[in-house]
Each structure stands twice: as C-alpha cells, then as structure tokens.
Amino acid sequence: MQVGLFSEHHPEVPVEVVAQADQLRAKIRQYDHEYYVLDAPSVPDSEYDRVFRALKALEEAHPALIVPDSPTQRVGGAPMATLMPVRHHLPMLSIETETDISEQGAYNFDARVRKKLGLLAEDGDIEYAAELKFDGLALSLRYERGSLVQAATRGDGEVGEDVTHNIRTIRQIPLQLHAGAPDVLEVRGEVYMSRPDFERYNARQREQGKPTLVNPRNGAAGSIRQLDPRLAAQRPLSFFAYGLGQTSGWQVPATHEQVLDALQVFGFPVCRERTVGLGAASLASFHQAIAAKRDQLTYDIDGVVYKVNRLELQRELGFRSREPNWAVAHKFPAQEELTILDNIEVQVGRTGAITPVARLQPVFVGGVTVTNATLHNQDEIDRKDVRIGDTVIVRRAGDVIPEVVSVVMERRPVDTQPYVLLEAIRHQCPVCGSHAVRLPEEAAVRCTGGLFCAAQRKQAILHFASRRAMDIEGLGEKLVDQLVDGQWVKTLADIYHLDLTTLSGLERMAEKSAQNLLDALQASKQTTFNRFIYALGIRNVGEATAKDLARHFGKLEALQAADIEVLQQVADVGPVVARSIAEFFAETHNREIIARLVQAGVQWEEAEGRQASTGLLEGKTFVLTGTLPTMSRDEAKERIEAAGGKVSGSVSKKTSYVVAGSDAGSKLGKAEELGLSILDEAGLLGLLAG
Ligand SMILES: NC(=O)c1ccc[n+]([C@@H]2O[C@H](COP(=O)([O-])OP(=O)(O)OC[C@H]3O[C@@H](n4cnc5c(N)ncnc54)[C@H](O)[C@@H]3O)[C@@H](O)[C@H]2O)c1
Ligand SMILES: [Zn+2]
Fold first, then answer.
1. Where does Zn(2+) bind (predicted)?
2. pLDDT digits (tens, 9 = 90+) for 309-363
3. CA gap 456, 27 in Å, rounded
4. Residue 663: CATH number of its domain
5. 609 and 528 in contact (C-beta within 8 Å)?
6. Is this complex scored with an ipTM above 0.90?
C-alpha cells in the first residue's frame, strides 16, 4: 500500500479515499433530497444505485470510514416540513439489494440467511415467500377497531409524514375493514400508479399542453405528498399490501404467506404474483418467471423480493440499521437509464403528424438495447428543454415505445441550442416537401400534403376504401402496402387505373380475386356526395360533418370554393373544422387528385346529400350506448338521421335522448346524472313511427 498522507479523522484511511467518500456522500445527499423531499429526481435510479454501491464498496474496504449518518446507514429522507410528522410504532425499513441480477443472486441470499442461522446442509431447505418489488411509495396504514385512522409515508424510517387526507381518495384502500378486524392493525404496502393510468394521464396532460409526469413512481409519490387532497384525487392511484406493522388483539399467523392471505380477507388488495417455495432454486425460478412476464404487467416493478416465510425465523434473524436480515430485493435490468442524445430527427406518421425522434447512443434499458426514443412534440421538447448533445434519461417500460423523460442539466455541454422542430425541417414535410404547419390549438406539427404525402398515402387509401366511405371490398391493408411500396399507387386516384395484369402479378393475388377487386372498384365509382367528402379523409371531417357539408353545399365546386367564413355557416362547423377543410382544398395536390378521381369516373347525384328527411326528429340530438336487441348501431344511426335527427358521440346537456341497450356504459350513468330522457329500442322505434 502506498504510504502517503492520511486523514486526521481517519488515521488509517488515505486522504484521497476520504475525499472520494465525501464526494459520493454529497452526491447521494443531493439525489436523496431531490428524490425524497422534492419528488423530482435528476438522475435515474440506476445511476443513483451505482453511486450508492460505489460508496458501499469504499466503506467495506475501509470500515473506519463508516459514520452513523452515512447514507448507507440510514433509510430514505427527512419528512417534508409542511406535512405533520408521524412517529412509527415499528420502524419502516428498507430492503437490501442483491447486486447480482443473474440467478446467482437468489443463491447468495440463501447462503447469507443459512449462515446467519448457523444451518448445515443436512438441516434442509428454508421456506421462502417470493413476491414482486413494486416501484411506488411505501405506506403504513393504521386501523383501529376496523377503521382507517392514519396513513403515513416511510420518511426516514422512524418518522414519516401524515398523508391520511390523500390516502382517503384512493378507492382501493379500505376505509373500513371487513368483520373480524383486530383492535389495532398496521398494514404496510406500496401505493403506485398503474402504467395504463400513467399513460392516459400523460396523454391528457400533453393534449392540454400541461406538464407530464416523469414516471409512474414519481406520479404516485408526488400526489401522495400533496397538501391538497383534490390534487391527489385527480391522479389515479392503486395499492398493494405486503406486510404488517404494529398489531394488537390479533393472533398473528405463523407465516408471511398467511399474513398476506389474512390481509386479503380483511379487504386489502394483495398482488396475485406471489409464491412460497423451498430453497434458493425456487427463488431463482420465480425471478426468471417474473422477468419474462414483466412487460405484460400493468404496473412497474424493479425486481422481486424474497422473504423468509416463517415469522419466528424472521425474528431470529432480526435486522441491521436500515434493512431486515430476512429479506432481499433481487432486481431486474433498470427501466430508466442515462445516455447521450446525438441527434433529433423527425418521422411522418400516417395522419401527417411530424414527430421528433431522439437518436441516442445505444443504451441497455428495460432489457433491450435502445437507440431511438420518442420526444412526442414541440411542447414536450420545450418543457423538458431537450437539446442535441444532452445527457438524457430514457425510459422503456412495458411495450410502450421508449421515451426521453428528462435532461440531466448538470451534464449539459456548453454551446447547445434549443431545438425548434419547424425550423429544423425548414417548414417542409421531409417526406413529400409539402408545407408543414403547426396549428395554434395543436401540439403536433403536420404535413399539409394530405393525399399527396407518401407517409399518409396508405392510411388515406385505406380510409378511402373503407365501408362507410367508398366501400371498396378487398382493398385491405396487405394489398395497400404492396401497391404503395411497389409504386403502383402514387396518389389516391391511381387505384382507379389498376389493371388485371398488374393486380394478378401481386403476391397472393389470384386472377379471380384481382377481377373481384376491379369489379369492386368499378362499382364504387357510383357513390354519394357525402360519402365522397368523408372518403377524402380531411382532418376533423367525420361522417356527420361530411353529411352536413354535402347537404349545405350540394356541389363539389361550391364546397371547394368556400372560405373559412362561408364554411362556418354550416351547422356544427366551428373555426377549427373550417380551417382544416379550407387548408385541404387550398393544397394544389389535393385539388389535382380530386380532379383525377372525377376523371376516372367517380360520380354522385348532386341532390343526394339534400335528400328530404321526414323531419320527425329535426333538431333532436341522440346518443347511442350499449347493444340494442335488434338494430345495429349503424342502422339506428341511419334511421335517426333519415328522420332529420343527429347522432352524437358524447352526452351533454344538449342531448335530447340517450338510447340505451344492454351493457350500456358510462354514458348511461352520465345521462342519469343530467336527468336526460332515456329510451330503449322500442322507445326509439316509437319516436321514428311518429
Ligand atoms: N434517482 C434518485 O435520485 C434516487 C434518490 C434516492 C433513492 N432512489 C431510489 O430509491 C431506492 C432506494 O431507496 P429505498 O431504501 O426505499 O430502497 P428500495 O426502494 O430499493 O427498497 C425498499 C422499499 O421497497 C418497497 N417495496 C416494494 N415492494 C415490496 C415488497 N413486496 N415487500 C416489501 N417492500 C417492498 C417498499 O416501499 C420499501 O420501502 C432505490 O431504487 C434508489 O435507486 C433514487
Ligand atoms: Zn408530407
């Protein structure tokens, strides 16, 4: 060993090692504060764990370094000053992490437990309970005589925060226990946000231009530690019970497995993914089985937890400063990792949305190597201030596409520039060169190329051919892929110029089906004006609007010539819809394609759109929900519209009638809430009959 300078306080440890430990502790203290107090971590857990392990390794090599307030000796962070402190009757500990994520990890844990208990090979295998390690926030729920009296976070393990006001908004947590509950029962478990709830919440926030949650764990922790329970109530949270705190007036079962069974009987959600087995092999196989299933679970887990099953043995094993000796967390590959963002490129989607995509230095995250991640849209880039050259946190969980969740600002290189998508593409669609725009009320940048844009062509053709548009039977997804990829169809109008030789030369296309398709194409040319408008796939123009437009304008020339003002004279056409219609017809490519469609023989009776209705239901708006006994939903809709009524998708005060069949959903509930008239099929037929 090099004999050099030694520290004053640790005479046996070289100063540079002391300095290194101090540096690591300062980092950990900063990360802990961001994570536990601010609920805003700046680095992913994987990075935190690396720093933590480095400190642990230093302390193991130089035990004199260990001080009682080292992060390796304590749990969590200080409670938030704004919430009331709660002293735990029994401390809430952490769990030791097994560093070897291979199956060897299970064997290491078993070996440590056996050694501590002084067991020999002939003493037989230990019984273990294995369960999931949920990635949320630990809670202690206290029930007295069956009623929830207090909910507390872990805090530093001794003193947590009172979050009862927020916990009461979580439906999965019983306020009252089923009969037979003990005098005092403290239940420990994890509050979490499911992935679908997280995705839905973020999608809605993104749509409204509001801040998104970084990950489900943060979403859960952030809402539980709010002061205002209304904020917590807006975020959908769930709960899993996994253990006990203090109890009294109860014969506590003999094993962990039986404790969980009992909690389930009392009314707590307990995760089904758990098992009990003998020895390390059973643990290793659980680890493997869950790893294979991880992506299909609807919530985040960061590993599995092994616990000695018999509580008597747990007591014998006891605990150290921050973790029990009878449990271990056996992790999986991290779902969030650090990497460098090399470039931002764009992709044009099937609806013309131009989305920014991050090109990343390859990084192993969520079990796969990731090189691309979505950045969603300009608003998200602005909010996260993502720049080329940044070190970013990438998240890949479940089957959701990888996403850049945040930037590690500390590591931003000098000379970076904010990224502006429209400027980067010079206001042009990179696929077709059409003008790219961003509507003020929209997050997305869009290509205005419409039917001309190859990226949008396949989708446009499928929509054009669909049953309620031009109704071209046999023109399905596989065929459209071949036609567009093979350059047979460059614009929509080309489909009417396909011939038998070309079609029967395609993969899996017999002459008979080729001829059938040609017949279907021919038949589709005779259509109605409203179907044709709908078939063009103009943004924001659905079937109902297409009908209104057909009825109002009667002629294609009139519709094409209408400006935004004139368009808004049509019932139900607001400024947004009017603008997308005007923009569509303003694009030269689109006008050309329409002209070619007409040239190819597409025609309709000009008057059809104005067909006289019986007028019986004029001015009435209907909402359909559930399955009607004899009529299909389309049929009901057609008959209502034929009688002059309107069919809308959502219930509001303006709804005249809600027609409800079996398995009616939330719309029926809403209708009842608003006190609207609710009809069954017979009632609707009655109205139609006058
Ligand atoms: N990114 C950051 O800046 C940052 C900062 C601090 C901590 N962290 C992360 O926090 C974690 C360390 O903190 P920790 O001490 O809470 O350890 P931990 O989260 O790894 O393990 C203990 C916790 O596991 C939870 N748990 C989940 N399922 C469980 C089950 N079935 N049985 C028992 N407990 C279960 C409990 O909430 C318990 O408190 C690490 O993952 C670390 O990366 C990250
Ligand atoms: Zn384009």
1. 429, 432, 453
2. 999 999 999 998 889 999 999 999 999 999 999 999 999 887 789 999 999 999 9
3. 49
4. 3.40.50.10190
5. yes
6. yes
